[in-house]
Amino acid sequence: LAKTTQPISMDSYxxxxxxxxxxHNNIATNDYITWYQQFPSQGPRFIIQGYKTKVTNEVASLFxxxxxxxSTLSLPRVSLSDTAVYYCLVIVGxxxxxxxxxxxxxxxx
Amino acid sequence: SAVISQKPSRDICQRGTSLTIQCQVxxxxxxxxxxxxxxxxxxxxxxxANQGSEATYESGFVIDKFPISRxxxxxxxxxxxxxxxxxxxxxxxxxxxxxMRDTEAFxxxxxxxxxx
Lengths: 109, 116
Prior knowledge:
The complex is a heterodimer. In chain A, 34% of the residues are buried. In chain A, strand 5 and strand 6 (61-64) form a beta hairpin. Chain A has strands spanning 9-13, 18-23, 31-38, 45-50, 53-56, 61-64, 70-75, 84-92, 103-108. Chain A is mostly beta strands. Chain B is mostly beta strands. Chain B has one domain: Immunoglobulins (Immunoglobulin-like), CATH 2.60.40. In chain B, 0% of the residues lie in helices and 54% in strands. Chain B contains no helices and eleven strands. In chain B, the strands form two sheets. In chain B, strands 2, 4, 5, 6, 9, 10 and 11 form a seven-stranded mixed β-sheet that branches. In chain B, strands 1-3-8-7 form a four-stranded antiparallel β-sheet, with no helix packed on it. In chain B, strand 4 and strand 5 (43-50) form a beta hairpin. Chain B is globular. The N and C termini of chain B lie far apart (37 Å). Chains A and B meet through strand 3 and strand 4 of A and strand 4, strand 5, strand 9 and strand 10 of B.
């Protein structure tokens, strides 16, 4: 299973763009990169998924370089409500691996 | 997207007793997953539950401690047996759905268990 490494915590301010990078050096050909967001006392919530290059949805963008050994979740213009833990996962097909430690993002006023 | 209801949302239990957590999904799903999230920690997969077969447990988790039922494609239960304070945690059930673009996992709100 591909192991992921991401920063334990990050701080930002309202209105800024936040980029969280995840390393997954052992990613396999069939693996997809998926990010989840978790607020306190709630289950994780899907944010975005990608295989290569760039993926964008209404919430975030995901940048994946050609070698796919890392990925960057980009949150544009964060607000206080974006304070949460963000998990990077590498998923093969229908198998859901154990979550990594995640990145605790704190957005300050 | 799948909607998952978990019951109870929280409970305080005496050590040595057992608690059964229910997970109801609003659509039929092949696999359901049970996770544990200890205070301040990430999620750890306990087991995968398929309808009609025994659950598959991850390393460190055993059926005697965490028996799982999966009677149909929309429902599952996880029992935490013979509880001790170390079992105090949030327990979450999860399902996945695939569409044309993504494979998403959906989670229940979790059951916050405190063992005293």
